[in-house]
Design goal:
Number of strands: 21
Number of helices: 9
Helix content: 25-40%
Structural class: alpha+beta
Strand content: 35-45%
Largest sheet: 6 strands, mixed
Length: 350
């Protein structure tokens, strides 16, 4: 593994205890809600946040181990960092910004500038060498920050929300460019993001942090298909219930029961896609075995579809057409019934 990091530290109310690895040629995306510890973990690996415990190895060399008193300063670690707000030096030219990492590592100025020019040409930014960062667009500044991180030829590349500061149009274009650059980088890459689309587009593996701990990790396909926390379920747009299964029924933690098509036993998750949830104004007499009363708590418009949040004994999100919303008069406060066929449930061990 290029990176093998166990990071333990406390920062305010954050109690961070995370183990993460990343191999050559692998892109790992770290997701999680605000305050989960994503950026703090990245800063610790870069050497910018002190460990209380744990150990960080890069290419099997220890760069941080408080138990042994070993600590390698950031500029001596084979790490390139792209910060969320890029942190380009406003008083330096674009060329000097890119050359900065090399100069801090002792590379002579002429050589540093030569290598910086090469990377700016590669990023299609050669004509901006003498410009100040403030004259560039957000996308151009992002490419400058990436060039500054890569010019030192690091073994590990860390990116903290690299697309967060961009508008939607630029973000789509830069996502493609970033994916292409990452594919050419031979070392390991760790990206912090809260956007599932960025993670799916860029990463080979997902690590989800919640409250300073790893809540779930695995391939993009596995995490999206079988979320194991409310945060991940909301991220991928799936209803997630949890309970104890017995025979053809799951007794939910939150109350209520779910009927299943196949026998089930033990602690399980029940995943329900919103388009499998049907909304009725009156209790249905249809064949669905799962029928629950509730009240509409809110709606979200998604193109020609509407997501309806139904509060009740079994809270669910349903996805229906805008025409159905208008025809049935579905709006916040209306009492409704929801139904789900037992064959539309996905069940897996908790």
């Amino acid at each position: 593994m290029t990176l093998d990091a166990t990071v333990r530290l406390q920062l305010g109310s954050l109690d961070l205890d995370v183990h993460l690895t990343a191999a050559d040629g692998e892109t790992v995306a770290v997701l999680g809600p605000n305050g989960a510890g994503k950026s703090t973990f990245l800063r610790a690996v870069a050497g910018l946040a002190p460990l209380a415990g744990g150990r960080i190895l890069i290419d099997r060399a220890v760069v941080d181990d408080p138990a042994d008193g070993r600590y390698v300063v950031p500029e001596r670690r084979s790490v390139g960092v792209v910060f969320q707000n890029y942190l380009l030096f406003p008083h330096l030219s674009v060329l000097e910004n890119v050359a900065f990492g090399l100069r801090s590592r002792g590379v002579p100025r002429g050589e540093a500038r030569r290598r910086a020019r090469e990377w700016l040409a590669r990023m299609d930014l050669a004509r901006y060498c003498d410009a100040k960062p403030s004259s560039l667009s957000g996308g151009q500044q992002q490419r400058v920050a990436l060039a500054r991180a890569l010019v030192t030829e690091p073994r590990l590349l860390l990116l903290d929300e690299p697309l967060a500061a961009l508008d939607v149009g630029t973000r789509t274009e830069l996502r493609r460019e970033l994916r292409a650059e990452l594919a050419q980088f031979e070392g390991a890459r760790v990206i912090v993001t809260h956007e599932l689309l960025d993670a799916v587009a860029l990463a080979d593996r997902l690590v989800v942090l919640e409250r300073g701990r790893v809540a779930q990790q695995g391939s993009v396909t596995d995490v999206v298909a079988q979320p194991r926390s409310r945060y991940v379920a909301d991220l991928v747009g799936i209803n997630l219930l949890r309970g104890i299964g017995r025979d053809h029924e799951v007794a939910l933690e939150s109350g209520g029961t779910v009927a299943t098509a196949d026998p089930v036993a033990g602690d399980v998750y029940v995943a329900i896609h919103p388009h499998s949830v049907t909304v009725h104004l009156r209790e249905p007499a249809a064949s669905a075995r799962n029928v629950w009363p509730g009240r509409i708590a809110g709606t979200d418009l998604l193109g020609d579809r509407v997501r309806i949040h139904v509060a009740g004994e079994v809270p669910l999100v349903a996805e229906v057409t805008a025409a159905a919303v208008a025809e049935l008069g579905l709006h916040e406060g209306v009492g409704v019934w929801t139904s789900v066929k037992a064959t539309d449930l996905q069940l897996y061990a908790a």
